[in-house]
Specification:
Strand content: under 5%
Distance between the termini: 70 Å
Helix content: over 70%
Largest sheet: none
Radius of gyration: 21 Å
Number of strands: 0
């Protein structure tokens, strides 16, 4: 009787340890990011363009043309909509609020991605490494799109793994609106599925395209050409300014 009770109690202890470890990592990571963000008073160069999009979205209801897609500015718009618009720091703080939250969420999502293949302990270690990796802390305190893109990409994969093709496709579509590179991940997943299982995930791709279409139309209206990304204009200008081998030097 005593042995049976002890055996039944073991899983709860293991679960309690896991929950305690996850909460400790999350709370410590959150505190570190709040501290780092509170000491960051200046927007980045690219961040200023993102924040300008957010400002127009919230105050004017329009999306200004930019070589950056609207996904991340739309995320920043959520906290900014509830902030004092007369505060000159409100835009930057809104982006930092979003990034602090997403910066804590990203390692947690990564934990769920890793756990089925690596087990609980290694996944917990991976979560801690991602939480306290200096570059991740830097991206969590500023106004750039790295954390939102990574969270959306991880979320897309988790939904796919749960068997939700439509949910995964919609999330991939939103990930594309943050960074067009998401098309490479979605395309790679579709190709891998077809090669391994001889089935094409058309529901995922259709759901993704559904969210892409409005932005593709926006690019067509603004540029007069069909394109998958507004960054093509920036690349074209760079090629014109640095033709031939000089462009390789620019990349270097």
């Amino acid at each position: 009787m005593t042995q049976t009770a002890h055996t039944r109690h073991q899983p709860s202890l293991s679960r309690s340890y896991l929950i305690g470890a996850v909460v400790l990592i999350l709370v410590t990571g959150l505190g570190l990011r709040i501290w780092a963000a509170s000491h960051n008073e200046f927007p980045t160069v690219d961040g200023a363009l993102y924040l300008d999009q957010t400002l127009e979205l919230v105050t004017g209801g329009t999306l200004p043309w930019s070589c950056f897609p609207p996904g991340w500015p739309a995320v920043v718009a959520a906290p900014y909509a509830f902030m004092d618009k007369s505060d000159p720091m409100a835009l930057l703080r809104a982006s930092q609020i979003a990034n602090v939250i997403l910066g804590v969420l990203m390692p947690l999502l990564a934990f769920f991605v890793m756990r089925p293949n690596l087990g609980t302990r290694l996944s917990l270690l991976g979560m801690a490494l991602l939480m306290f990796l200096p570059l991740n802390v830097v991206y969590s305190k500023n106004d750039l799109s790295e954390m939102s893109y990574t969270c959306a990409l991880l979320g897309s994969w988790l939904l796919w793994r749960r068997g939700s093709q439509v949910g995964s496709g919609l999330m991939f579509g939103f990930t594309y609106l943050i960074r067009p590179e998401a098309l490479l991940a979605a395309g790679g997943l579709a190709l891998t599925t077809w090669l391994r299982e001889r089935r094409f995930p058309w529901r995922m791709l259709l759901a993704m395209v559904l969210l892409m279409i409005p932005y593709l139309v926006f690019i067509r209206v603004q540029t007069g050409a069909f394109d998958l990304t507004s960054k093509t204009v920036a690349v074209s200008l760079s090629l014109e300014a640095h033709p031939g081998w000089r462009y390789l030097g620019l990349i270097w």
